């Protein structure tokens, strides 16, 4: 199957989302180790596994388009994890700092997914996967906002 210009654009979109999910999974795993509350640790572990599942789904879509998926996250994601590490180290309330960063990260994911979803509307299978992941991320955002309200 020849890779068309439209397929290349779609692959690039999927690659970006794949990287974001690698970054999110690594971020959740990192902050899970710093969390003090066991319920929060469990929730973070579930989110890390979910983002791994998202990455697997995106990887499969990329392969279906005869392209090779990226292997890891972005430099920006690594820098953000370093910032989170510093912020949680300096914070007097580690769990609150973690929740704030989760909210920030999930909002960024929602924005990214919404922007990319518009670009793949011609591909129903891809659109369905991205839309389902977006719904799950929005659910996570709503949950983490409630957790932050409880923590305050």
TrEMBL record:
InterPro entries: CHP02284, DUF2383, Ferritin-like, Ferritin-like_SF, UCP029477. Residues 10-118 form the DUF2383 domain. Transmembrane segments: none annotated. It comes from the Bacteria. NCBIfam families: PA2169 family four-helix-bundle protein (TIGR02284). This is PA2169 family four-helix-bundle protein. It comes from Mariniflexile litorale. The lineage of its organism: Bacteria, Pseudomonadati, Bacteroidota, Flavobacteriia, Flavobacteriales.
């Amino acid at each position: 199957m020849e890779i068309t210009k439209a397929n290349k654009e779609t692959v690039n979109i999927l690659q970006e989302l794949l990287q974001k999910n690698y970054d999110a999974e690594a971020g959740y795993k990192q902050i899970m180790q710093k969390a003090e509350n066991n319920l929060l640790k469990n929730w973070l572990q579930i989110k890390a596994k979910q983002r791994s599942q998202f990455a697997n789904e995106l990887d499969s879509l990329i392969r279906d388009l005869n392209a090779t998926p990226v292997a890891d996250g972005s430099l920006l994601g690594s820098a953000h994890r370093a910032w989170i590490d510093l912020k949680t180290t300096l914070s007097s309330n580690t769990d609150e700092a973690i929740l704030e960063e989760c909210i920030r990260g999930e909002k960024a994911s929602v924005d990214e997914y919404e922007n990319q979803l518009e670009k793949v509307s011609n591909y129903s299978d891809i659109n369905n996967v991205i839309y389902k992941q977006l719904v799950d991320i929005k659910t996570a955002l709503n949950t983490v906002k409630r957790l932050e309200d409880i923590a305050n």
